[in-house]
Amino acid sequence: MAFLEPDFFQRDVLAVARDLVGVELVWNGCSGIIVETEAYAAEGDAACHTASRPSAREFMAAKPPGAAYVYFNYGMYWLFNLLVKGGGHDGLILIRALEPRKGLESMQSRRNREKARDLCSGPGKLAQALAIDGSHHGLPMAGKGRLPGFGLKASALPAKEVVSDIRVGISRAVDFPWRFLIRENPHVSVPHGKVRVPATASSRS
Asked: What are φ and ψ of residue 53, in 5° steps?
């Protein structure tokens, strides 16, 4: 299958987040099918980095659609996102989970885990499994500048049921149903309908 081009990411952030489910992420000898994503809108979404980080707004203005947005979360692990711009609503899409396909031995070594479902079933896990870090921030994942061995391929797998749910581990805009996942897939980070909402959070504050 061909690699995705920048026009894939020049659409509404919610449409792209849903359509990325089922796409194969290819990363330096490893790959996996994306089974879970989260959308974050550049405007009107208090949970998006653009609401609180000038550097995120600068990144969105300067980088092309499909660029990797990588950041260190809670001083513990890297998170891998993709930039969406030029469509209905710009934003960032967090890749939350993969179903591993290629390079399992490398992933197992990096994660110190044997079972496939333990390798990429969460955003921090998949970054560790693929050896994603801050050096990849800004890396073009589509179009001009995309490096050999990196990119996203439309999957030849049969269509799966994609469902929406609320996002995981945030304290703002907690009721936005902007997480997209394959129902009952064992590789997702949190099963559909199982996210715990912070009791004191104000969803649209």
From this structure: -120, 110
CA 69, CA 72: separation in Å to the nearest integer?
A: 10
Q: Does domain 6-182 match CATH 3.40.50.2300?
A: no
Residue 180's nearest CA partner among 197, 168, 198, 196 is 168
Contact of 116 with 108, CB cutoff 8 Å: no
- The H or E element that residue 126 is part of is helix 123-130
pLDDT in tens, 109-142: 999 999 999 999 999 999 999 999 999 999 999 9
Q: Which long-range contacts (CB under 8 A, 24 or more apart) does 4-8 make?
A: 4/66, 4/141, 4/142, 4/151, 4/152, 4/153, 4/154, 5/142, 5/143, 6/64, 6/65, 6/66, 6/142, 6/143, 7/65, 8/65, 8/66, 8/142, 8/152
Per-domain residue ranges for the chain?
Answer: 6-182
For residue 94, list its beta bridge partners: 38, 81
In this structure, what are the phi and psi dihedrals at residue 185, rounded to the nearest 5 degrees? -75, 130
8 Å CB contact between 205 and 46: yes
Span between the terminal Cα atoms of the chain, in Å: 43
Alpha carbon of residue 144 to chain centroid: 21
pTM above 0.90, yes or no: yes
d(CA 67, CA 50): 16
